[in-house]
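Help wanted!
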Amino acid sequence: MEPAGELRRLLPAGAVIEEPEQLRTYECDGLTGHRVMPSLVVLPESTEQVQAVVRACHAAGVPFVARGAGTGLSGGALPVADGVVIALTRMNRILEVDLDGARIVVQPGVTNLQVTEAVIGDGWYYAPDPSSQQVCTIGGNVAENSGGAHCLKHGFTVNHVTALTVVLPDGELVRLGGRSLESPGPDLLGVFVGSEGTLGIATEITLRLLRRPEAVRTVLAAFDSTDAAGGAVSGVVSAGILASAMEIMDRLTIEAAEAAVRPGYPDAEALLLVELDGPAPQVEEELAAVEAICRDCGAWELRTAGDDHERALLWKGRKSAFAAMGRVSPDYYVQDGVVPRTKLPEVLRRIAALEADYGLRVGNVFHAGDGNLHPLVLYDARVEGEPERARALAEAILEACIDAGGSLTGEHGIGVDKACSMPLLFGADDLEAMQRVRRAFDPAGLCNPGKLFPTPRLCGEVPGPYRAHPLEQAGLAERL
Amino acid sequence: MPSVSEVASVEEAAELLAGAAGRGERVSIGREGGDVVLSTAALDRVLEHEAGDLTAIVEAGVRVGELNERLAGHGQMLALDPPGNPTIGACVAANLSGPRRHRYGTARDLVIGVTVVLADGTVASSGGKVVKNVAGYDLGKLFCGSEGRLGLIARVALRLHPLPAAARTLVAPAGSPAEAAAKARAVLRAPVAPSAVDLLWPGRLAVLFEGGRRGVEEQLGLARSLVGDTEEGDTVWAEARERQAGSQGRLPFPPAGLADALGGLDEAVVRISAGVAYVRSPVADPRDPAEIALAERVRAQLDPAGVLA
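Answered by r_m:
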């Protein structure tokens, strides 16, 4: 890249990486099937340095991609060929802890867990908890609008960010929001969070903190079918109980977890984990109701955790479910789809039928409370044709989710992974409206290009079939 | 006097807007200044309510009160309680909320999908009808607070909540900024989960507890032991909303600076955790000028011909 010399002038020694061996570290994120070598990686330490780098890129017409810990699962941090990767890992300071205002100000390279660790001693925590929380960064969480098992009750990243300092794609600085949650005008902060790094780079992030709940109780219930477990989830919802998490694992994932980490789960067709948090009297009241609902729905074993140690045991198998698949299959593909919760039984039956059609096994572990499925498609890469079959099966599952009124992704993002699937959910006018928003932020199209939107280069000239958007279906097909 | 055009469908709205530029008309949506006022009064259908999913899809002209009456039959609610009985479209466009924003947030936290009509008649949707969804830009959030300047909000998909079985209110005296701040801090740090924490300044701190009967009673008891109680009951919420309705400005303040903020106010309804005071006089735009400029660039992209007044 032309401005390499300029970037070395702008940044401290060692903050510009050009050696191919070192660049290789940055050639992919958690979506390891996609790799692109960047021409340069820079490691800025301040907002001013990010601004200087972005200004230089903008002046030279060079594309750039912001990157946190590189744990994203949709290729959002995949470099652009001949572009610059702006790695924010050195911007890892907590700038201010404002417990009186229940806010914390951090740089983007601070990890999700570090935020909670900074305040837990005083009885506070940061609610969104993606499963990669030990390593994933807040900057990446903002880009992806990360969720986690507990977002059912407490919401997603976007519900917890109150202010951002953003370096816009031309290098100008803008401050969105503040310590207050009230701000006039269109919610630019709200559209920035979850824009997958395409609208700018957040360099200072103000988050809302919550008081640590007085009580947390977890119930594990064993059922003879995922339908029965799903029935219990519906029962909890109908009873007006807002659990902080409701997770279901099927037999295949239970067996894998058992083989990998020996959580000692009951030998069941389906397990349901329900977690409740809040003031102790409220939680005890809800716990009794949840246990009764589970029994009514056919649960034949119930285990309840009271302390952190017991909770960790119940969660152990669930948290290791993805990695545990390595025990039962040489390779697996993790899908991320969403359906309205009431459509879960229907979609699970459809997935079972697809397993038979494609001759592959699928493990199901899902955030049942919000209908977010993570089917694990098992395959063996050494068998000719299996990787392609697995990929096709994963896509068929996604289409089943959309047919049921759901979405392409609940938390992993679109990135490059699903950009070509966007036309399954959105029509040309929907995508064009989003592109107009993008052009307002990034008229030159240099900020993380090639992500989120389908492009002819990525997807071929013909986008996939458009089906009526769920709102349109419900709205009696009023698209023009 | 501008003429009023009531649209009864998304198509009608698109047709009206698509033709406006050619006719040299400027269109107002929920504000003043246009040649034609676009009214959503006839966009008043509830299109879908999936009780089991706690979601609903409504047209923008549906009013909060009517929607909630209908949902109450299923033990559910839209957790928005702004004063008056505004339309859902107005709640989104003007970012309206009430005391219970403390627990449930505002429209931006409850809107899960939108269909909008842009100034050139383009119909665009984003989000969907599932609560958890990160596919594409969230135009629903962008249109929160858009004041009719970015396009017509035509349809809205909403996240619903269960109706609480019980509700109890605590009202405590709060005469000075220091007393108000100390009592608010005590409640906000206690192991209780209120739905609303309002300061009716000067004078009273009001705290609402909702949920199961036993949990609510115990939380009320604990809070009372911390801050005292003047036993006024739940009429205080009607008063808070009425005073909010009569205010002219929303003054943002850092929640940590509550006492300082109160020192400069003679009368206000204050949402403490959100950091906003509803005050009598209009408030200057608190945004970074760079944010105002960026919002203008978004507006210019979505309405390049300047059709929307």
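OP: Thanks! One thing I noticed: DSSP finds 18 helices and 19 strands in chain A.
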